[in-house]
Design a protein that fits this description.
7-stranded mixed beta sheet, globular, Aspartate Aminotransferase, domain 1, 2 domains, Aspartate Aminotransferase, domain 2, binds pyridoxal-5'-phosphate, 3-stranded antiparallel beta sheet, alpha/beta
Length: about 400
């Protein structure tokens, strides 16, 4: 079992930062790496040809290991989840009357792209709502999605867990159905990969897209995508020099090269060698591998479970154990709680969480400890007291 890792971060002790789903803090070692790399640009002759390739290859290797992919060349560096999703949408082969299945209120970077596709190509977008049910949300919602996938489905695009409240989808059964219907399965892993185990071999998605600044503990404007065999001969968003064969031979770049490097290389963003951000993200993922994602998840679950019980006792609604992740969960507030007051109390006690509709989203990591949850719960208790109404 992991111990609290707060000494590796610079969060002030009096702050209860339970909002990694908004943005992770940087590890101290990652921040130092970034500062060091910034300085190198002041002496540009210290940046060599191998700096364009090797740190990136190390990054791909680390991410491939994190998601259990054998071939790091299936990983492409992307600047945002929206970029990685656009690559997918640009390469989907559709039959007339096709449909795209998404879930209600999924993150915009995994919605607008599909909306545009159906507007341009004349298909249908099927937005699967959470069924009104007393049953386990993850189970009921997965069943509703399964019902919407049919022979006309070109893509099922969703995340492993819902970004707003952490509802977990059963990706194994969704993969079975999409395979049977010859539909692509495209996963946005931004709110899960790095904190909740994800195994590409086991789930076999066609693509997995992750922004880097949340659970990968990386800097903003970084991300990584896995593209499976379906995309091997596809068309990238842009044509850049580095994705072509033998781009390492700078002297020869004037002799244009018509072949791409293999697998997902063609989908890497221009200026992907980013000398500051790439080593930072690589250092962050190396730390995740060292901790082990299963251990990170176990730490978050163990830490949050007593709070979950107390919240339930106070009348809050939370997802049932098996479908609730330890690192990101929604708390639906009872009617008697005044949200504005709760918000004030959180601000006064430096508790950071996100409000989403009638629920709050709590997202701890290994830098959190019991005190953070105690402070969080005390705000609830104070808010419940009659003097507040
Ligand atoms: C599920 C999910 N995907 C993606 C993103 C970020 O998208 P982008 O990198 O396109 O800004 C977020 C940000 O909150 C998110 O919650």
């Amino acid at each position: 079992m992991l111990d609290c890792q707060s000494d590796k971060f610079s969060l002030p002790e009096e702050v209860s930062y339970l909002n990694c789903a908004y943005m992770s803090p940087l590890l101290k070692q990652v921040a130092s790496k970034g500062e060091f790399q910034v300085q190198r640009k002041s002496i540009p002759y210290s940046i060599h040809v191998n700096d364009f390739y090797e740190p990136l290859q190390d990054l791909k290797q680390a991410f491939a290991q994190l998601i259990n992919v054998d071939n790091p060349d299936r990983i492409a560096p992307i600047p945002a989840a929206s970029y990685g999703m656009s690559t997918v949408a640009n390469n989907v082969v559709m039959q007339p009357g096709f449909n795209i299945v998404v879930v209600e209120e999924q993150f915009p970077s995994n919605y607008y792209v599909w909306e545009r596709l159906v507007m341009e190509k004349g298909g249908e977008i099927r937005v699967v709502k959470l069924p009104q049910t007393e049953r386990v949300r993850g189970l009921a919602w997965t069943e509703a999605i399964l019902e919407q996938i049919d022979e006309q489905t070109a893509v099922l695009a969703l995340s492993h867990i819902h970004w707003a409240d952490g509802t977990q989808f059963d990706l194994i059964s969704l993969r079975e159905k999409t395979k049977a219907c010859d539909a692509l399965l495209v996963i946005d892993g931004t709110q899960s990969v790095g904190a909740l185990p994800f195994d590409v071999e086991a789930i076999q998605p066609d693509a997995l897209i992750c922004a880097g600044y949340k659970w990968l503990l990386g800097p903003y404007s970084t991300g990584l995508a896995y593209y499976g065999p379906y995309f091997d001969n596809g068309k990238p968003i842009e044509e850049n020099w580095i994705n072509r064969q033998e781009s390492e031979d700078f002297k020869n770049l004037v002799n244009y090269q018509s072949n791409y490097k293999p697998f997902a290389h063609r989908y890497g963003v221009g200026e992907q060698s980013n000398f500051i951000l790439v080593p930072m993200l690589e250092a962050a993922i190396t730390q995740l591998l060292e901790w082990d994602v299963t251990q990170i998840q176990a730490y978050c679950k163990t830490l949050s479970t007593p709070a979950v019980e107390q919240l339930k006792a106070m009348g809050c609604q939370l997802e049932e154990e098996t479908y609730r992740s330890g690192h990101l969960f929604g708390v639906r507030l009872p009617k008697q709680i005044d949200q504005a007051k709760l918000q004030q109390l959180f601000a006064a006690h430096q508790v950071f969480i996100s409000f989403r509709g009638d629920a709050i989203r709590v997202s701890p990591h290994v830098y959190n400890n019991e005190n953070d949850f105690q402070t969080f719960l005390q705000c609830f208790e104070q808010c419940m007291q009659p003097k507040f109404f």
